[in-house]
Design brief:
Helix content is 34%, strand content 19%. The strands form 2 sheets. It has an 8-stranded mixed beta sheet with strand order 6-3-7-2-8-1-10-9, with helices on both faces. Strands 4-5 form a two-stranded antiparallel sheet. The longest helix has 16 residues. It has one domain: Protocatechuate 4,5-dioxygenase, Chain B (3-Layer(aba) Sandwich). Strand 9 and strand 10 form a beta hairpin. The chain is an alpha/beta fold.
């Protein structure tokens, strides 16, 4: 059967993608950010999965305010990098896994979660920046990707509790797939940041690190944190962190297994007026 071997958590700051694409990674401002992912790229080469289930949010690229799905799973064979107003990023097309994606959709919907099935969409920086951070700049991504878009842009957005429970349903779906696949689940977005208003530029490093602590050791308790705390403590865009709970809910310990191994943890301030957070957790073999 398929199995989830690890979860990866990372910010998906668009300026990080621009720094990579424009060859600015060696500049003093960016050096410390990218240094935090050097271990991750080595780990990725040594622990390459067959499929990554990548949780991210669309930034009004595939979906507009006319249609806003709460949870949308990409079931296509491939996904093109989106043009977000300045041309598509110069990165490879994303190759999907339609069979596993369709199986997950079937299983999760039968498990009482309503998903939107998307057979064609472009993917923006929310998905491609994490791939670049973990894989560098290859000619082709070294694994297949199932995009899973979550609405954290337009209220109402799903609760942390709902996201955590959805991660558990995704784990059950993956483990019921009758093929020997190594699957990783990634949660992206965050950490604390606000892009507009009187608090624009807000960063709360103390709250961010407490979030990372609880994500590792107390995910069920963390899942109970209400939206108002995310917005108050981590800024209006800090609500993206609920997506990390989907990935965390899919780990083995949540279903009674052993706790995950913390492989890597990284936090840096700032990167384009945001805090960058990153974590790799492995399920014990």
């Amino acid at each position: 059967m398929a199995r989830i071997t690890a979860s990866v958590y990372t910010s998906h700051v668009p300026a990080i993608g621009a720094a990579l694409d424009l060859g600015k990674t060696g500049e003093p401002y960016w050096q410390k950010v990218f240094a935090g992912y050097e271990f991750s790229k080595r780990w990725m080469r040594e622990h390459r999965p067959d499929v990554v289930f990548l949780v991210y949010n669309d930034h009004a690229t595939a979906f507009s305010l006319e249609i806003i799905p709460t949870f949308a799973i990409g079931t296509a064979a491939e996904f093109a990098p989106a043009d977000e107003g300045y041309g598509p990023r110069p990165v490879p097309r994303v190759v999907g896994h339609p069979e596993l994606a369709s199986h997950i959709a079937q299983s999760v919907i039968q498990d009482d979660f309503d998903l939107t099935i998307v057979n064609k969409m472009d993917v923006d920086h929310g998905l491609t920046v994490p791939l670049s951070l973990m894989c560098g700049q290859p000619d082709a991504w070294p694994f297949k990707v199932i995009p899973f878009a979550v609405n954290v842009v337009q209220y109402p957005v799903p609760s942390g509790r709902r996201c955590f429970a959805l991660g558990q349903a995704i784990r059950r779906a993956v483990e019921s797939y009758d093929e020997d696949l190594n699957v990783q689940i990634w949660g992206t977005g965050g950490m604390s940041h606000q892009l507009q208003g009187a608090r624009a530029g807000l960063i709360n490093a103390e709250w961010d690190n407490r979030f990372l602590d609880r994500l590792i050791a107390d995910p069920a308790g963390l899942a109970q944190v209400p939206h108002v705390e995310y917005v108050r403590e981590a800024g209006s865009e800090g609500i993206e962190l609920v997506m990390w709970l989907i990935a965390r809910g899919a780990m083995a310990d949540v279903a009674g297994g052993p706790p995950p191994r913390v492989v890597h943890r990284f936090f840096h301030v700032p990167a384009s007026n945001t805090a960058v957070g990153h974590l790799i957790l492995e399920n014990p073999a």
